[in-house]
Structures are given as C-alpha cells and as structure tokens.
Design a protein that fits this description.
single chain, 254 residues, alpha+beta, 9-stranded mixed beta sheet, two-stranded parallel ribbon, 8 helices, 28% helix
Length: 254
Amino acid sequence: MNNIFPDEEWKPAQPASDTELWRYIDFTQFVSMLENNALWFSRAAGFFDSYEGALPPAKLREIAEGVSDRVSDPEQFVRAFYDALRYSTYINCWHEASEETAAMWQVYQQKGKEVAIKTTASQFLSALDSNHEIVSGQVEYIDYSNSPDITVNRISPFFFKRESFEPESEFRAVISNFEPPDGTPVNENFVDKVARESSPGRPVTVEPSTLIQEVYISPVAGGWLETLVDDVLDTYGLEDVPVYPSSLNEDPFE
C-alpha cells in the first residue's frame, strides 16, 4: 500500500487566519446545518470535476513503476486505487474572497443556492469537531498535461485541480480513511465494490455560533428570504448573526 500511496509528509498551503471564506448553499442546507450542528462533507466521486483525485500522468507512471512485477498492468492497477479513493474521500468546499462574488452567485444560483455563509479561516477551524482527522487548506491549480511533480499521499490529490477551475479560489477540508475491502481483488469490480460500500457523504459536527460570521441572501431572492433567515437564526439562538441582502442589488444612482 505504501507504494500506491507514498507515506510522504505533505500539507496544503494555508491562508492567513483572517482570510474570509464563503459557502454558497440552499436554504434547506442552511437549516439542516443549524438543526444538526453539522457540516456536510460530500463524496469526491460525485463532484462536477472529473479530475478529482487524479494524478498527473508522469506521477501515475512513477508510482506504477514501484508496483509488483506480478501485476500485469501496473498503471491500470494504480489508476483503480485512485479511482476507488474518490469514493471514500469526503470534502467540504469554500470560496476565498474579500466579498461576495457575482460569479459564484451565477454558478450556484443555477443549483438553487440562496444563502451565502461568511466565515474566516480561523473561525472555520475553531468551529469543527477536532475528533475527525480533517486536513484543510488551499487548492493549488496546475497544468496536468505538463506533468507537474506533486507530492502524493492519500489526501494530496484532492488539493490539486486543473487551471480552468482557478476562479473558484477554493479552500477545502478533506477526510479520507480509505482502506481496500478485505479480500477484494483489484479487478474490474474493485472500484464498484468500494463505491457500493461507501456513503454519499458525512456530517461533521460544527459549532454554528463559531462558524457563522455573517449571512448574505442571493441577489435574485426576495426580501421574504432575508426575513425568514433572520427568524431561523433567532430560533437557534444566533440572533446576533447579521443577515444582509446581496450588495449586488445596490443602486448606485440612489
């Protein structure tokens, strides 16, 4: 296994503690977070980016060279492990920015996202349950076709993305404790078995009063949602958290 996931010391780059982070979610997700005191970490295999957890080709070949000679196709063998890894790795994503971002609203509104939570890097880490083995940090955007020499362990592939995703300016938290199912041969059924035995996501305990600095309402949502979010925060004892309409709706001529 060490040949497949080299046990190298590696940590993702970290933002300054006061770096502002934004998470765009729908109203039901917002209520669920408050009700359950939990953030949802989604399975990496379900993400839009098909390269989640992938290795640059040269790095894959390098790892394949360390595979036993008894394996007929070392590169496919390694590829199967990293594909399976995506099904048992869970991620919670945030956007780094000093203010709400029109581009992010445009992307997420198509998915029904109506609320943006604002926090800071230090508040995010303080709010999370420390009982989970979570690695968090900034995503690095690379040119996979140029074969960059990245450090590899079970976590690091999920902190690299293609350059076309750079506008996301992503900060993420990752949980991965992948272990191959006992007695499962690495064949055409290997990835499917791991996928069947893994869950679509994981709730991670969080303290909302520490996490949430401010809440913003989508620029296309009506004022009724602002009032509703205010009422919900009051219900969960977070009446001091300010709720703002999107600044994108401000009229410069008034």
